[in-house]
Amino acid sequence: MKKKLLLFIASAFSCFAFSQTTDLCYPENLSCEYLTNPLGMDSPNPRLSWMIKDGRQGSLQTAYRIVVGSDSIQVLNGKADCWDSQKINSDRILTSYEGKKLSPFTPYYWKVMVWDKDGEMSSSKISSFETGMMGMHNWQGTWISDGQDINHKPAPYFRKTFDTKSPIKSIKSAKAYIAVAGLYELFINGSKIGNHRLDPMYTRFDRRNLYVTYDVTTQLQEGKNAIGVILGNGWYNHQSHAVWDFDRAPWRNRPAFCMDLRITYIDGSTQTIVSERDWKTDAGPIVFNSIYTAEHYDARLEQKGWNTASFDDAKWKGVYYRAVPSQNVVSQQMQPIRNVETIVPQSIKKMNDTTYVFDLGRNIAGVSQLKASGERGTIVRIKHGERLYTNGHNDGHVDLSNIDVYHRPKDNTDVFQTDVLILSGEDQDEFMPKFNYKGFRYVEVISSKPIDLNINSLTGFFMHSDVASKGEIKTSNTLVNKLWRATNNAYLSNLFGFPTDCPQREKNGWTGDGHFAIETGLYNFDGITIYEKWLADHRDEQQPNGVLPDIIPTGGWGYGTANGVDWTSTIAIIPWEIYMFYGDSKLLSDCYDNIKSYVNYIDRTSPSGLTAWGRGDWVPVKTESSLELTSSIYFYVDASILAKAAKLFGKADDYKHYAELADKIKDAINAKYLNKETGIYANGSQTELSVPLQWGIVPDGYKAKVAQSLAKKVEEAGFHLDVGVLGAKAILNALSENGYAETAYKVAAQDTYPSWGWWIANGATTLLENWDLDAKRDISDNHMMFGEVGGWFFKGLGGIKPDPQKPGFKHIVLRPNFVSGLNQFEATHNSPYGEIVSAWSRKKNTITYSLEIPANSSATFYLPEDAEAQGALKSQRVIELSAGKHILKLNQKGKP
After folding, report:
1. pLDDT tens for residues 62-110?
2. How far apart are CA 707 and CA 456, in angstroms?
3. Among 346, 463, 481, 893, which is least packed by CB within 10 angstroms?
4. b/e for 232-254, b at 16 or more Cβ within 10 A?
5. Nearest 5°: CA angle at 689, between 686 and 691?
6. Of 219, 231, 227, nearest to 179 (Cα)?
7. Could you tell me if 404 and 500 are in contact, meaning their C-beta atoms sit under 8 angstroms apart?
8. Element (H, E) at 371
């Protein structure tokens, strides 16, 4: 018998304890293209959004007005010379600019006024955005390089001096625009500009290049100024060899760049300093750099002050013109990669006078910084790995054998994840790679001659796309808390301008890994700018027939026989999830024709509705699942998303066609694979039962039977997993959404093999690639492909879900599960409307359920099957909630 939950009612009319406040309604968190006061905008109709701050119960925006102008004072006073939307009776918090044509290189100011539920108006503070090139025709600089070939190893350094045409006090602003094929660091008058790392982001370089904009007004000085640029290879000129054929990319060339430094004076005149043949170039201390393996730095070759105006560059050489890499150079509008977190080693072990091993205490993606001094010419090798040898003569040394398996070095100079520092012999040398990152926990420092290091000699930096945190899970189960944190660490370790599989062995944008983890990513982080860039990469890579590679971007690898729907459904699933989480259909619209081309290709090649095109349930515990079943289900998912998108965009003929196609696929799957007598799909593996349930394949009349079969299968396994990546995505949702939340929780919180918790119990601080800790292949210790569990905590326990009819959490669906084994639980998600909280605590037989619904939003609370209200709400199974804080008291009696 299931638990009986009795809802105590505060009064005959309400079961909620409201917190009353006198907060007024006002708009905040203004953003343009999901960025705060961005520079270099290229969009002619940028998206503008805001959030309502209003602590009153039932708070609501009833109207808004946006003013945009070129004069901040005028905008402050509610006047606009570019766009005045006038008062619009609407509760929407996202719109697009619809005013006069925007001019390039122009700052614009805007604010929003909103009317609350009582008709009272309030105004936001002033926000801004500034346009960039807005077209390739506005570039004045040319593409230049140092004239070396693709095999030349030292990184090129460039410099130019210039004088401002007027005194420094007459400068109003100065903006630097730099586009690079490869990677770069930019300096003005000796100072590094910005704190970005590994800019610009990786794209299909022969089809799209990105430029970055900086405000450098304060970096200019009176008299002579100097610009310095260092170029790195990145993914553009991949000199390391691996099985992925990075070195054979069709765009491969020596790194090059184009730059405009545009100075605007108070009198309105401008001066542009451009990349041209009057620049000079030379080599420097970076003697080798590979995004994939490592960086080598010879401190003896440093040229002090090379990026300052007083430096003597008489021995530097001239530069060479280069053709633009593509005809599509656009602004990089996304959260950049940064050194986000500084990590101090937990321990240091001195192996001998020339070898030290540092332990950061956790697995990360990023770099280390070493400070060392010693005899001139001493070679210091800095090896990064996830594991240590545990026996034999290498005991305690860094072990790379789990992550270097796909590296194919041409010689012994390019050692995997091993930086090289050659000491200058002058005071202390300090080295941190500029154009590389790694996945590691341990750092082994090996020198050719004795050096003296201590625990302060090395620092770790956790690098990733610097996306804001949007979610948090707190529970009474320590293992669950650690698992949530490990999932987030793995997610961030694999976010470098696009989602990757692992930060060490491959660094590839595997499509499957990307969409398996999409909900986990969006519940926890503000990732829309990263995903919009990555889906643009998809559009660049897609073949004319609709086919996509299974790693994106790619230099050519990934168009094989297995790049099928279970992986490359990213083209449909991610735009749809962005729409669900943000209420923004732009990405879905941008990808509509690509989804259509993709679905049409599968339809042409699989007219029966069934397809075996895909990789299948990758890295299962032990049981293999039907490839045709799982691939056909993802074909259904794509066709369904396409039909829903067609309906959303008013494409009636497409809607009819693809809705019918989805039904055809669903019927074909059920006709072949569903045993209606037993409630079993195919051979009844955990994956074969959970994937149809997760994706809505199971006919309504058979869901209970199939869910029961799945729950029985899981119970027979001792609440352990027997799935690969497709089953890991589906199993928890399939159980919790079909009456078996208790079973799902026992699986999620399991701490013995095979399970997520088994990793945590064995000290993992990120997610792993293999359930088996003793596996011999597929053994990265920082992988995201099993990461759905992090999203499930929000859905399956907190019950927080977007409503497809009012996406972006305009309306929230709440289906919490008060499972045994947890006495306290809290899920928080910062939605486009504000913070959503779903929290509950258990004390003896009483559960207190606390909810917070953000202003201008609403929610529907669905009581679990084992919940029952008393009094005036006794007959209600569904309770509507307005914005505000709510507390529900539930009595729990009985046990399953």
Report:
1. 999 999 999 999 999 999 999 999 999 999 999 999 999 999 999 999 9
2. 55
3. 893
4. bbbbbbbbbbbebebbebebbbb
5. 100
6. 231
7. no
8. strand 355-372
